[in-house]
């Protein structure tokens, strides 16, 4: 007999606004507490202590405009936040500070989340000025490393989601971009060249994630399909598998760091868990009362401590402990 889905381990409340994005920082040794960052529609970034389940501080740097991407840099003492005020802020949190130490202007008013690759120097992929354009910058110098544009006359629409990664073989980083027309494109960053493209969905791609070791990725859209695709030896994008879901609309996708399971956040208020190897549905988590905008797995070092966080339009964050076996 199938076991019923679990209840949340606990929930976090008090932001007073919709939760748009989440990011864990749980790898610091004791006595540093495990942390969770959340970005809200009111422009604040809340820093949560997961031991006390309370906010440590709220960062206010986006002029009241929605925050929809957060990324840690090296450790918990420095983060990036991207907002609808067309700014990417760099925050210093060391020694109790909570100040913006740098800003990077954006020229695109869409909702495409940036992507950070921790190379030396760190590289930041971000939407460009034109709708379909994407750019990669040296985060330290802010110099443009690459600008990638579809061929003239292409009707891909806006860049909607992206993932910057470094292949094991090859000197150039690679960038996967999901577009408004439902296609996924792979770009060679240093050559400013599109390598391959796949028509994955019929609706805009809302989120994607990628498994570098298996050269396999997954995308979600406004439709009711979760599409898996892979790269062949010539780096051509190929359709691999489609998993249909009951209700349309996937806001966010996250692969767990061990690449065993993935989670999706849905427009139908549900979080769905799948096996990454087989795409078999494992659980449907029903708790939220509105669209689930964000899902994120923790980076705890011990498997038994791992958590899944879900953030919703209902202003709540739920924390789940599921399938923690190594």
From TrEMBL:
It comes from the Eukaryota. Keywords: Repeat, WD repeat. Pfam families: WD40. Gene3D superfamilies: YVTN repeat-like/Quinoprotein amine dehydrogenase (2.130.10.10). InterPro entries: WD40/YVTN_repeat-like_dom_sf, WD40_repeat_dom_sf, WD40_rpt. WD repeats lie at residues 198-239, 285-326. This is G protein subunit beta 1 like. It comes from Leptobrachium leishanense.
């Amino acid at each position: 007999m199938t076991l019923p889905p679990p209840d949340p381990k606990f929930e976090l409340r008090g932001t007073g606004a919709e939760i748009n994005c989440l990011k864990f920082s749980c790898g610091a040794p004791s006595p540093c507490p495990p942390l969770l960052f959340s970005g809200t529609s009111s422009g604040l970034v809340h820093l949560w202590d997961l031991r006390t389940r309370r906010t440590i501080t709220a960062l206010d740097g986006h002029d009241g405009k929605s925050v929809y991407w957060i990324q840690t840099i090296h450790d918990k003492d420095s983060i990036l936040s991207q907002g609808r005020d067309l700014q990417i802020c760099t925050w210093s949190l060391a020694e109790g500070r909570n100040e913006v130490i740098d800003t990077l202007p954006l020229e695109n008013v869409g909702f495409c989340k940036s992507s950070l690759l921790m190379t030396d120097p760190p590289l930041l992929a971000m939407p460009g000025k034109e709708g379909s354009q994407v750019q990669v910058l040296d985060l330290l110098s802010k110099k443009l490393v690459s600008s990638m544009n579809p061929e003239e006359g292409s009707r891909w629409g806006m860049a909607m989601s992206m993932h910057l990664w470094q292949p094991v073989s090859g000197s150039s980083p690679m960038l996967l971009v999901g577009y408004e027309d439902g296609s996924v494109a792979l770009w060679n960053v240093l050559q400013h060249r599109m390598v391959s493209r796949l028509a994955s969905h019929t609706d805009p791609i809302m989120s994607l994630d990628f498994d570098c070791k298996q050269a396999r990725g997954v995308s979600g859209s406004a439709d009711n399909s979760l599409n898996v695709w892979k790269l062949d030896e010539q780096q051509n994008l190929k359709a691999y598998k489609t998993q249909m879901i009951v209700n349309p609309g996937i806001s966010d996708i996250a692969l767990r760091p061990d690449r065993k399971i993935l989670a999706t956040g849905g427009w139908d208020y549900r979080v769905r868990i799948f096996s990454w190897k087989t795409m078999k549905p494992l659980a449907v988590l029903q708790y939220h009362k509105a669209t689930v905008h964000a899902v994120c797995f923790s980076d705890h070092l011990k498997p038994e401590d791992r958590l899944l966080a879900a953030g919703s339009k209902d202003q709540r964050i739920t924390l789940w402990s599921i399938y923690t076996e190594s």
